[in-house]
Design brief:
The complex is a heterotetramer of chains A (498), B (398), C (352) and D (353). With 498 residues, chain A is α/β, with parallel strands linked by helices. Chain A folds into 2 domains: 25-237, Rossmann fold; 241-497, 3-Layer(aba) Sandwich (Rossmann fold), CATH 3.40.50. Helices cover 34% and strands 22% of the residues of chain A. In chain A, strands 4-7-8-1-9-10 form a 6-stranded mixed beta sheet, with helices on both faces. In chain A, strands 16-19-20-13-21-22 form a 6-stranded mixed beta sheet, with helices on both faces. Chain A has a 4-stranded antiparallel beta sheet with strand order 12-11-14-15, covered by helices on one side. In chain A, helix 13 crosses helix 14 (391-405) and helix 14 (391-405) packs parallel to helix 15. Chain B has 2 domains: 27-55 and 87-210 and 355-382, Response regulator (Rossmann fold, 3-Layer(aba) Sandwich); 213-351, 3-Layer(aba) Sandwich (Rossmann fold). Chain B has helices at residues 2-22, 28-39, 82-85, 118-133, 147-160, 175-184, 198-201, 212-230, 249-253, 256-265, 281-295, 309-321, 335-342, 354-369; strands at residues 108-112, 137-141, 164-167, 189-192, 206-209, 237-242, 269-275, 299-304, 327-330, 348-350, 377-379, 384-386. A 6-stranded parallel beta sheet of chain B has the order 2-1-3-4-5-11, with helices on both faces. Chain B has a 6-stranded mixed beta sheet with strand order 7-6-8-9-10-12, with helices on both faces. In chain B, strand 4, helix 7 and strand 5 form a beta-alpha-beta unit. With 352 residues, chain C is an all-alpha fold. The chains are: A alpha/beta (498), B alpha/beta (398), C mainly alpha (352), D mainly alpha (353). Chains in contact: A-C, A-D, B-C, B-D, C-D. Chains C and D meet through helix 6, helix 13 and helix 15 of C and helix 7, helix 13 and helix 15 of D.
Chain lengths: 498, 398, 352, 353
C-alpha cells in the first residue's frame, strides 16, 4: 500500500497538495486551523465528489466520490465532530452500513458479539443495545474510534481523536495505534497537540494556508521547528508569565456540590487573577462552571461574589451579577452561526442597550469597533455571518462577546480549543489584559502550556473533587499533569489544609 | 371478566330463545302492547320553534317517468337529477324484514347520525321527544363526520341487534353498502335526512326527510319572482350560486335544483357563477366580493346553500360594495338566517325542521312497528319563510 | 493567512446575503407585484374585469385581514424556532365562544374573558414548549384537541348567539361591530370605501409586530433564540421565557382573530377558526420566514398574506372553482418555497 | 474503564418507559372489558379490528417516514386519492388494474414528496402541506365534488369478501393490514435495509458516511408512505364500495397521534411499525369503549387530545430529566450515599450515647 497523491489547483481550502502515506507508518498532519488538513483528509474519505487531482491507492488511481467508495478501498476516518447517531444503538452505529447478515436478515448474535469485541478493544464494556444518547461523551468518542477500527481499514485517518479523552484512554488509544501500525496499516494522525504527535508519529507533514510546507521524519524535526513551520515563530516565546498584582477577594466558593458531578468544591479567586482549573476529561470542571453561572442548579454549598452571596438562577442573572461563561462548544453553545459578527458580539448586551424595551444596537457600535480591532477579528466587516469565519475568528468573536459585557468574573472553558496559533496568541494576550485590568479570570483548559503559562494559580480537579492548589512557581506542565492524574482518596478540604 | 361476558351472552341467548318460542302469532301481551302503542298521540308534540313536531307534507310529490338515461340530459334539465330527486320512489326493495306489528312500545332503536353539529343536536332532540312519547328505547351514535367511524358504528349497531336502525348516511354513495350490510343482518333500516343513491333505497324500509329538490325548486320560484319584480322588463337576470360542501345531496339539490327549475320557469335568469367556499363567513365574503367586482350591477340574485355563515358573508360583501338590490335566497333555517330575513336582507329561506327530521324517522319506525303501511318515502312539509311569516318560526331550533 | 482566502469567499457570500434579504423581503413584494401585473394582463386580455379598481384592492386586503392578524402572531412562534402553533384554530373558537358567553355580563368583560382564555392556552404552550422543550407541532396539536374537547363538552355541541346572550342590545351591537366597525369612513370621497376594524387591527399588528421584532430587546433576543437556541441560552437569554412569550403573542393574536371571526359569523361555535393553522403557516412560509427560525420579517409575512389574497381574488375573478383553486394554491406555495430554498442553498444554508 | 453511572439502563421504570404503548394497550383492554357494556365479544372486537385496519395500514408508512425524521401530511389526501382512482377506474378496467393503479398513484405522490424533500431540500412539513393542498384540488377536479360508488354485484361481492369474518377478529382486509404490519416490522427490525431508515433518521451524516444512500432511503420512505396510505385507502373504499371525497380527512391527525403515542419520535431514529399498530388498536379500543358507554364525540376528542398531551409532556419531561443527570459519576454518588450512611450511623451512635 503506498502513495496517495492528489492535486487541487485553484481550490481555496486545499491548494495543489501532494501527500503520501506508507503502510506501517503513523503520519502526522499538523497545521493551524484552516490550513486544510481536515479538508484534505475528507477528500480521502470520499466526502467530496468534486475534488481535482488524483488519488492513488496501491499505485492505482481511484475515484473517491462517496464514503461508500472510500470505505471499499479501506479508508477509515475518525472525525473531529462525533459522527454517531444519538438515538441509535451502539451496535448499529459501530457496524453502520455493514450490519452482519444471515441470508437476507440480520444476524443479531453476530452483531452483539462483534460489537462487544470491538468495544473491548478500546476498553469499553457497554451493552451494545444502548443508544448513544445514554452514554457519556467520552464513551461516545471511544465508540467512534471502535467504529472505524471495526471497518478494518488499511488507511486510517484520525482527526483530533483525543480531544475528549482522558489520559488513560489516550494511552490506550496509542497502544492500539501501535498495534495497527505493526499490522501494516497506514495511519494519518491529525492533531494540534504536539506532544502527542511526537509521541506516536513516524513522519510529520506540516500544512499552511492550504499548501504543504514540508514532510519530514520525526527524528529530523523538533517541536520548535514544527511550530515555526506552522506559524513562522515559536510557541514558547509567547507566555510572559509576568506576575500580576492582584486585588482583594472577588469570588469565594464554599463546599459547592452538584450531586454526581462534583462535591464539596471550595476555592477563592481575587480580582485581577487568572485562576487555572486543571483536570482530566470528566473531572467536573465544566459542570462546576455551569453551576457558577446558573445553567445548572447546585445541590448545596455557597458562592460569594464580593462578599455577597450569589446563586444566580439562570445565565441572565449571572450576567447581571457580573459572572460570564465562555463555553467550550463554540459552534452550538457559543455562537449563533447564522447571525452576523455584530449580532453575536452584542448579544450579551441586549438588556443593557435597551431603553424601555427598545433595543438600540447602535449603542454598541463603539464597543464593537474597538473589540474587533483589539482582537483583530477578520474580516473587519461586522455584518459578516459568523458561520463563514474561520475557527480562530469565531473564537475571537465569542471572546469579544464576553469582553463587551465586562464581567467581574469571566470563566473561560477551553478558550483556544481547535484554534490556530495566531488566534491563540491574540486570545492569550487579551486574557492577560483582562486580568491586568482587574477582572477575575477562571481558566479551564486541557492545553497544559496554556494553563501553566497563563495562570497565577492552578487548582487541580479530579473525579469531582478539588484535590490540590498549586502556585505559579510550582507549576510546570509535568507537575500539573502528575497532580491531575494522582488519585487522592481524601476529601478536598484536607488537601486544602495540607 | 370473561365470566361476566359469558353470562351476558347467555342471558341474551336465553332471551332470544324465549322470544322465538312465541312464534308468529301475537301473544296477548303483544296485542296489549300494540293497542297501547296505537294510542300514543305524537301530534301534540312541538319543536322548539313552536311548530308541530311531526307534520307530513300535505302535497303529494308527482313522480314523473324516469328518462332512459338521466345523465345524458343537460344539467339544467330537471330530469337530469331524476335518480337523486326521486330516489326511493322506484326502489326495488330487497329482503325488507316483516313488521312484527306488535307495537312500538319497548322497542329499541339505534339512531346513527352523521356528525356533531348544532343541527344534529336539535335533530336528536326531536327524535328523543318522539321516542319518549312512544316509549321507544333510543340510542344515539355520532361518528363525527368520519366514514370509517360510521361504518364501525353500523357494525356495532348490528352487533347490538336492535329492533331498528335509523341512519343519516355520511355520504350518498357510501350509503349503499352500509344499507346492504344492515339489511343483510335482517334489521329494519330507516334512512333519513340526506338523499342517498337510489340503490341504497332498495335496502331500507323507508326514507324520510326534507324534499330538498322540491323545496329548493319552490324557493327558486319565489326568488325568480322577486327578481323579476325588482327588475321589471329586464331581459337577463344574472345570478350566482354559493354552493354547499361537495359530497352530499344538498350540494346538488341547492344549486342545480333551482337552476334546473328556473330553466323552465324563468328563462331570463342566467347563471353566471357558482362556487363552494365552505361554511366560513369570511371565505363567502371574499367570493361574493369578487363576484360583485366581476359582474358589477348586472348581478341580480344569489342563491346560497346555507343561510347562516354563507348568508352573513354575502351581506358583508354587499355592505362593502353598497349593494342592496340583489335578491338573496338561501336554504336552511338557522337563527342567523331568520334574523337576516327579519332585518329584510335575506328575501326568503326554506323551513328546515331539524327536530322534525329526527322525529319523523322515529315516528315512521314506530308506525312500522305498529303494523301500519309505510310508503317508501316520507317528506317533511315544505314551507318558505319570508319577512311576512318569519316571526311565527321563532325561537329557532338551534 | 487562511483568513484571506475565507474573506474572498465571504465577500461573495455577503453579496449573496443581500440577495437573500432581497428574496426574503423585497422578493415577496416583487412576487406580489407580479401577481398584480398578472391581474392587469388578464384584465387587458379580457379574461377578468374590474381587477384594477380601488374597490377591488380594498376588498383583497379586507378579505385577508383576519388571516393577517393570526399569521403575524404565529410568525413569532415560527421566528422563535418553534415552527408553528397548531392550537390556533381552537384558540380562536374557544376565545370566541367564551366571549359570547360572557356577553351576558357585558362587552368588556366578554373581551377580557376571551383574552384570559387565549392567555391561558398561550401560557400552557409557553410552559410546555418553552420550559420542557416539547415538540411544538405535536404539543400544540394535542392542545388543539384538548380545547376542542373542552368546547364540545362544555357547550354540548351547541352554538350560542351573541344577541341571545348579551345583556342589552348595545352589548350585542358592540360585539357585532368588532368585525363591522368602520374606523375611517368614505375613503377618498368614496362613501363605500372605508377602513374597517379588522384591517386597521391587521395594519396595527403588522406595524407593532415589525417594530417588536426588529427594534426591541425582545425581538433581538427572539432572533438569537430562533437562530441558535443553545447559544442564546449561553448568552444569558432566558430562552424559556422568550420562546414562551412567542406562544403567548400567537395566542393573543389568535384571540383577536377568534373575536373577529365570531363577530362576523354572529355565532360562538367550535368550528370557528378551522383551517387557520395551515392557512397561517402557508402565509408565513410564502412570506419568506424560515421554519427553522430566526429568519424573516413581519413585513415579509404581510407580503405572504397579500399574495394569498391576490391569488384568491384573481382565481375567483377568472371563475375557477374554489376547490380546484387548491391545486394552484398548493403549486404556487411549493414553487415559492422551492425558489426560496434554492437561493438559500446556493449559500450552503439548506435550512429553509 | 468507564466510570459513569449507567443511566436509566435498567430497572422497572426504564422497562415501563420502553414498553409504554403495550401497557396502555393492555390497560385499555382490561378497563374496557371490565366496565364497557358488551365490549368483550367476538363481534365487537372484530368491529374494532376492522375499524383500525385502514389507519393501521396508513400508519406503517407514516411511521417509516417519521423514523427517517420527516413528516408526511399528505397521507389523508392520498387515502382519498387512492379510493377515487381505485373505484373510479374500476368500471373501465376492473379491479385487477385499477387497484394497482391506485397504489401507484399513492407511490407517485410519495415519490414527488421524497424528491422535493431530498433534492430541492424543502422541509417535509412544507412539501407535504403543499402536496396535500394540491391533491385536495385534484380530487375535486376528478370527482367534481361527487363521491364514487359502485353498486354492481361484483363490486358488492368484493366488498362482502373484504368485510367477512375469516376467523374471529380477522377479515381479509384486516389480514392484509396485519400481514403488512408484520412484514414491515420484520423488515425494519431485521434487515439492513430496514435499519438504514433508523440510521438516516438518527443522524443523516452518520448514515451517509457509513455508505448509506440517505437521500434514496428518504425517498423510499416517502414512496412507502404513499403506497401504504393508498393501500389502506383503496381497500377501505372497496369494502365500502364507495370512495367519498373526504374519506381520508380524519386520518392524518389520528395516525399522527397514534404514531407519537406509540413511541416514534418526531426527531427520528426511534420507534417502530408494530408500536404504531398497537397504539392504533389501543386508541380504537378506547374509542369503541366510549361509544359503548354511550358517551359522545366530545369525550373522544378530549380524551384523544389528553392522551397525546400526556405522552408528549411525559417525553418532554423525561428528556428534560435525562439532560439533567447525563454524565453523573457513579463513584461520586456512591461516595455520597456512603457519607449519608456514615452520617446516619454517627447520628444513631450519638443519640444512643
Amino acid at each position: 500500500m503506498s502513495h496517495v497523491g492528489k492535486k487541487f489547483p485553484g481550490t481555496i481550502a486545499v491548494d495543489d497538495v501532494s501527500f503520501e502515506v506508507y503502510a506501517g507508518e503513523v503520519h502526522a498532519l499538523v497545521g493551524e486551523n484552516g490550513a486544510g488538513k481536515s479538508t484534505l483528509m475528507k477528500m480521502l474519505a470520499g466526502s467530496f465528489d468534486d475534488y481535482t487531482g488524483r488519488i492513488l491507492i496501491n499505485g492505482k488511481e481511484v475515484a473517491l466520490h462517496s464514503p461508500t467508495v472510500a470505505k471499499k478501498y479501506g479508508i477509515g476516518m475518525i472525525y473531529q465532530e462525533l459522527s454517531l447517531a444519538k438515538p441509535i444503538s451502539i451496535a448499529e452505529n459501530l457496524l453502520v452500513g455493514r450490519l452482519p447478515k444471515k441470508g437476507p436478515f440480520l444476524d443479531r448474535k453476530r452483531i452483539d458479539s462483534e460489537t462487544r469485541s470491538w468495544l473491548s478493544r478500546v476498553g469499553l464494556d457497554l451493552d451494545p443495545n444502548l443508544p448513544i444518547e445514554d452514554i457519556s461523551p467520552h464513551e461516545a468518542q471511544l465508540v467512534e474510534i471502535a467504529k472505524v477500527l471495526a471497518n478494518k481499514p488499511c488507511i486510517l485517518v484520525m482527526d483530533e481523536p483525543t480531544s475528549a479523552l482522558s489520559r488513560e484512554e489516550v494511552d490506550r488509544l496509542f497502544e492500539i495505534i501501535g498495534q495497527l501500525k505493526n499490522q501494516g496499516l497506514a495511519i494519518v494522525y491529525i492533531s494540534h497537540h504536539l506532544p502527542e504527535i511526537f509521541a506516536i508519529a513516524d513522519r510529520i507533514t506540516v500544512m499552511r494556508d492550504g499548501k504543504k510546507v514540508a514532510t519530514k521524519d520525526k527524528a529530523e524535526m523538533t517541536r520548535e521547528e514544527v511550530v515555526q513551520m506552522m506559524v513562522g515563530h515559536s510557541e514558547r516565546e509567547f507566555y510572559h508569565g509576568q506576575p500580576r498584582a492582584s486585588g482583594g477577594e472577588r469570588l469565594r466558593v464554599e463546599a459547592l456540590t452538584r450531586k454526581g458531578f462534583f462535591h464539596d468544591v471550595c476555592f477563592a479567586a481575587r480580582a485581577g487573577e487568572i485562576l487555572g482549573i486543571c483536570g482530566l476529561a470528566g473531572a467536573g470542571r465544566t459542570e462546576l462552571a455551569r453551576v457558577l453561572v446558573g445553567l445548572d442548579r447546585k445541590d448545596s454549598g455557597k458562592v460569594f461574589l464580593d462578599g455577597r452571596e450569589a446563586s444566580p438562577r439562570n445565565m441572565a442573572a449571572a450576567l447581571r451579577l457580573g459572572i460570564a461563561y465562555l463555553s467550550e462548544d463554540r459552534k452550538s453553545e457559543g455562537l449563533a452561526l447564522r447571525l452576523s459578527i455584530k449580532e453575536n458580539v452584542l448579544a450579551g448586551l441586549i438588556p443593557m442597550h435597551s431603553k424601555a424595551g427598545v433595543y438600540l444596537p447602535e449603542a454598541g457600535s463603539a464597543v464593537l469597533e474597538s473589540l474587533m480591532r483589539e482582537l483583530s477579528i477578520y474580516p473587519r466587516d461586522p455584518s459578516r455571518t459568523v458561520g463563514n469565519l474561520s475557527g480562530g475568528n469565531q473564537q475571537k468573536v465569542l471572546l469579544a462577546k464576553w469582553m463587551a459585557c465586562g464581567p467581574k468574573v469571566l470563566i473561560l472553558d477551553e478558550p483556544t480549543r481547535g484554534v490556530d496559533i495566531g488566534a491563540k496568541m491574540i486570545i492569550h494576550a487579551q486574557i492577560e489584559r483582562l486580568a491586568n485590568e482587574g477582572h477575575t479570570i477562571i481558566l479551564i483548559s486541557s492545553d497544559l502550556p496554556e494553563l501553566v503559562g497563563l495562570s497565577d494559580r492552578v487548582m487541580i480537579m479530579r473525579k469531582g473533587h478539588f484535590i490540590r492548589e498549586m502556585a505559579k512557581e510550582d507549576c510546570t506542565e509535568e507537575s500539573v499533569l502528575i497532580a491531575a492524574n494522582t488519585d487522592v482518596a481524601r476529601p478536598a478540604q484536607e488537601v486544602a489544609h495540607g | 371478566m370473561k365470566k361476566a361476558a359469558s353470562i351476558v351472552a347467555f342471558v341474551a341467548m336465553a332471551g332470544i330463545c324465549a322470544c322465538g318460542a312465541f312464534g308468529q302469532a301475537l301473544s296477548a301481551q303483544q296485542k296489549a302492547n300494540l293497542e297501547a302503542s296505537l294510542k300514543v298521540d305524537t301530534s301534540v308534540l312541538k319543536s322548539a320553534d313552536n311548530q308541530s313536531l311531526i307534520v307530513l307534507s300535505s302535497q303529494k310529490k308527482v313522480i314523473p317517468a324516469r328518462p332512459a338515461d338521466p345523465d345524458a340530459l343537460a344539467e339544467t334539465d330537471p330530469l337530469h337529477w331524476y335518480d337523486m330527486e326521486y330516489a326511493g320512489w322506484n326502489a326495488k326493495k330487497v329482503n325488507i324484514p316483516q313488521s312484527p306489528a306488535d307495537g312500538a312500545i319497548g322497542k329499541k332503536i339505534i339512531l346513527i347520525v352523521h356528525g356533531d353539529h348544532p343541527w344534529t343536536t336539535a335533530c336528536t332532540l326531536g327524535a328523543m321527544k318522539v321516542a319518549q312519547a312512544c316509549s321507544i328505547k333510543l340510542k344515539v351514535l355520532s361518528p363525527n363526520w368520519d366514514l370509517a367511524v360510521q361504518n364501525q358504528m353500523i357494525d356495532q349497531a348490528i352487533n347490538e341487534k336492535p329492533d331498528a336502525i335509523c341512519l343519516i348516511p355520511l355520504d350518498a354513495k357510501a350509503a349503499v353498502q352500509q344499507a346492504r350490510k344492515i339489511n343483510d343482518a335482517g334489521i329494519p333500516l330507516f334512512l333519513f335526512n340526506t338523499l342517498t343513491q337510489a340503490d341504497a333505497m332498495n335496502y331500507c324500509v323507508a326514507w324520510t326527510g326534507p324534499d330538498d329538490f322540491g323545496q329548493q325548486r319552490k324557493l327558486a320560484r319565489v326568488w325568480a319572482d322577486e327578481m323579476q319584480k325588482r327588475n321589471p322588463g329586464a331581459k337577463e337576470l344574472d345570478v350566482a350560486y354559493v354552493q354547499h360542501a361537495p359530497g352530499g345531496s344538498p350540494y346538488f339539490a341547492r344549486c342545480w335544483g333551482p337552476m334546473s327549475e328556473l330553466s323552465g320557469y324563468a328563462k331570463t335568469v342566467k347563471t353566471v357563477a357558482k362556487e363552494a367556499p365552505g361554511f366560513d363567513a369570511d371565505k363567502a365574503t371574499q367570493v361574493v366580493s369578487d363576484w360583485l367586482t366581476r359582474f358589477g350591477p348586472g348581478l341580480k340574485g344569489i342563491f346560497a346553500a346555507d343561510d347562516s355563515a354563507q348568508a352573513i358573508g354575502i351581506f358583508e360583501a354587499f355592505k362593502k360594495a353598497g349593494r342592496t338590490d340583489i335578491v338573496v335566497c338561501a336554504a336552511g333555517n338557522s337563527k342567523q338566517g331568520m334574523d337576516l330575513v327579519k332585518e329584510g336582507k335575506l328575501f326568503a329561506i326554506t323551513y328546515q325542521t331539524a327536530e322534525g327530521d329526527g322525529a319523523l324517522t322515529i315516528k315512521t319506525a314506530a308506525d312500522w312497528f305498529n303494523g301500519k303501511a309505510i310508503e317508501p318515502v316520507r317528506y317533511l312539509p315544505q314551507k318558505i319563510i319570508t319577512k311576512a311569516n318569519v316571526d311565527s318560526f321563532y325561537p329557532p331550533q338551534w | 493567512m487562511a483568513d484571506q482566502a475565507i474573506a474572498k469567499a465571504d465577500a461573495r457570500s455577503t453579496a449573496q446575503g443581500r440577495f437573500i434579504h432581497f428574496v426574503n423581503v423585497i422578493g415577496i413584494y416583487f412576487a406580489a407585484l407580479l401577481f398584480v401585473l398578472l391581474g392587469f394582463a388578464l384584465q387587458a386580455a379580457g379574461v377578468i374585469t374590474n381587477f384594477a379598481s380601488a374597490q377591488n384592492f380594498l376588498n383583497i386586503v379586507d378579505n385577508v385581514a383576519m388571516l393577517g392578524i393570526v399569521a403575524v402572531g404565529m410568525s413569532f412562534v415560527t421566528y422563535s424556532g418553534s415552527m408553528a402553533d397548531m392550537s390556533v384554530p381552537t384558540t380562536m373558537a374557544l376565545s370566541g365562544i367564551v366571549a359570547v358567553q360572557f356577553l351576558k355580563v357585558g362587552f368588556w368583560p366578554a373581551i377580557a374573558a376571551a383574552f384570559a382564555v387565549g392567555l391561558v392556552i398561550g401560557l400552557v404552550n409557553a410552559v410546555v414548549v418553552g420550559r420542557f422543550k416539547a415538540n411544538p407541532i405535536i404539543w400544540t396539536l394535542a392542545i388543539n384537541y384538548v380545547c376542542m374537547g373542552i368546547i364540545r363538552v362544555v357547550w354540548v355541541n351547541k352554538q350560542i348567539y351573541p344577541d341571545m346572550i348579551a345583556s342589552t342590545k348595545d352589548v350585542s351591537q358592540a360585539f357585532d361591530a368588532i368585525y363591522r366597525l368602520e374606523v375611517v369612513k368614505g375613503l377618498g370621497g368614496n362613501p363605500l370605501a372605508s377602513l374597517r376594524l379588522p384591517l386597521v387591527m391587521m395594519v396595527a399588528i403588522v406595524i407593532i409586530g415589525q417594530i417588536v421584532l426588529s427594534r426591541t430587546s425582545f425581538g433581538a433576543q427572539l432572533k438569537l433564540t430562533g437562530s441558535a437556541r443553545k447559544a442564546a441560552k449561553f448568552t444569558g437569554v432566558n430562552v424559556e421565557l422568550i420562546t414562551g412569550a412567542a406562544f403567548i403573542v400567537a395566542a393573543i393574536t389568535a384571540t383577536l382573530g377568534g373575536l373577529t371571526v365570531t363577530s362576523l359569523s354572529r355565532v360562538g361555535a367550535y368550528y370557528n377558526g378551522a383551517g387557520y393553522d395551515f392557512r397561517a403557516v402557508t402565509a408565513i412560509v410564502i412570506g419568506g420566514m424560515s421554519l427553522s427560525g430566526g429568519r424573516g420579517s413581519i413585513i415579509g409575512v404581510l407580503g405572504g398574506v397579500l399574495i394569498i389574497g391576490l391569488i384568491n381574488n384573481i382565481m375567483t375573478l377568472i371563475g375557477i372553482p374554489t376547490l380546484s383553486q387548491d391545486m394552484i394554491r398548493g403549486a404556487i406555495f411549493i414553487t415559492v418555497v422551492g425558489i426560496n430554498a434554492k437561493s438559500l442553498r446556493s449559500l450552503g444554508r439548506d435550512d429553509a | 474503564m468507564t466510570t459513569h453511572k449507567k443511566l436509566d439502563r435498567s430497572g422497572a421504570l426504564s422497562w415501563v418507559d420502553h414498553n409504554r404503548i403495550y401497557l396502555i394497550f393492555v390497560v385499555a383492554l382490561l378497563v374496557m372489558t371490565a366496565f364497557a357494556p358488551k365490549f368483550f365479544n367476538v363481534f365487537n372486537l372484530t368491529t374494532i379490528s376492522k375499524t383500525a385496519a385502514m389507519n393501521a395500514c396508513v400508519a406503517i408508512g407514516f411511521t417509516i417516514v417519521m423514523i427517517c425524521g420527516h413528516l408526511d401530511l399528505s397521507i389523508g389526501t392520498v387515502i382519498t386519492l387512492a379510493g377515487v382512482v381505485g373505484l373510479g377506474l374500476k368500471k373501465y378496467v376492473g379491479y385487477e388494474i385499477s387497484v394497482p393503479l391506485a397504489l401507484c398513484s399513492g407511490a407517485l405522490v410519495g415519490l414527488v414528496n421524497g424528491l422535493l424533500v431530498t433534492k430541492v431540500k424543502i422541509s417535509s412539513f412544507i412539501v407535504t402541506l403543499g402536496t396535500m393542498t394540491i391533491l385536495q384540488g385534484l380530487i375535486y377536479q376528478i370527482t367534481g365534488g361527487n363521491s364514487i360508488a359502485l353498486s354492481t354485484p361484483d363490486a358488492f361481492s368484493v366488498a362482502d369478501f373484504l368485510g367477512h369474518r375469516l376467523i374471529p377478529l380477522v377479515t381479509p382486509r384486516v389480514l392484509i393490514t396485519l400481514v403488512l404490519v408484520l412484514l414491515f416490522q420484520f423488515l425494519l427490525s431485521s434487515t439492513r435495509w430496514g435499519r438504514n431508515f433508523y440510521m438516516v433518521g438518527g443522524n443523516k451524516s452518520t448514515a451517509w458516511l457509513g455508505g448509506i444512500e440517505a437521500d434514496r432511503q428518504i425517498v423510499v420512505a416517502f414512496v412507502l408512505s404513499g403506497l401504504l396510505a393508498a393501500t389502506g385507502g383503496v381497500f377501505f373504499a372497496m369494502e365500502s364500495s364507495a370512495a367519498t371525497r373526504n374519506m381520508g380527512d380524519n386520518s392524518l391527525m389520528y395516525v399522527l397521534s397514534a404514531t407519537i403515542i406509540g413511541g416514534t419520535a418526531m426527531s427520528g431514529g426511534k420507534g417502530g411499525v408494530f408500536r404504531s399498530f398497537v397504539a392504533i388498536l389501543a386508541l380504537e379500543i378506547i374509542y369503541d369503549g366510549i361509544i359503548l358507554f354511550g358517551l359522545g364525540n366530545e369525550v373522544k376528542i378530549f380524551l384523544a387530545g389528553f392522551i397525546l398531551a400526556v405522552v408528549v409532556l411525559y417525553e418532554a419531561y423525561a428528556s428534560y430529566r435525562h439532560d439533567r443527570v447525563v454524565g453523573q459519576r457513579s463513584e461520586l454518588l456512591a461516595e455520597l450515599s456512603a457519607a449519608g450512611r456514615g452520617n446516619r450511623s454517627t447520628d444513631a451512635a450519638s443519640s444512643r450515647g
